[in-house]
TrEMBL record:
Gene3D superfamilies: YggU-like (3.30.1200.10). PANTHER family: UPF0235 PROTEIN C15ORF40 (PTHR13420:SF7). HAMAP family: UPF0235. GO terms for cellular component: cytoplasm. This is UPF0235 protein FHS21_002099. Belongs to the UPF0235 family.
Length: 109
């Protein structure tokens, strides 16, 4: 069985979300899902914060928490703290989180 490409992976106590972050933007926004040249999918996010002293990461955490209706403590940067490509760990019911994130799935071809 072929696995459907996705911008997140469900886990035991939450999900891992794959994000491409653009700091120093004109606005804080989630812009949907994009596919990279290597076939991976990422959620595109922009924040106004600068990428120094963890400010852009904190802004991303707050943006995602607000978008998903969660507390900021449930959203953490798991990998890629100094990279544009990040893995964000979101704690909670994986099925409920998957439903919230599924609306951002890439289009079906």
């Amino acid at each position: 069985m072929t696995r459907k490409p996705s911008h997140f992976r469900t886990e035991r106590n939450g999900v891992t979300l794959f994000v491409r972050l653009t700091p120093k933007s004109a606005r804080d926004a989630i812009e949907g899902v994009e596919e990279t040249d290597d076939g991976r999918f990422h959620l595109k996010a922009r924040v106004r914060a600068v990428p120094e002293d963890g400010k852009a990461n904190a802004a991303l955490v707050n943006l995602l928490a607000k978008q998903l209706g969660l507390a900021a403590r449930d959203v953490t940067i798991a990998a890629g703290a100094t990279s544009r490509l990040k893995q964000v760990r979101i704690s909670g019911d994986p099925d409920e989180l998957a439903l919230k994130l599924a609306v951002l799935e890439p289009p079906k071809y």
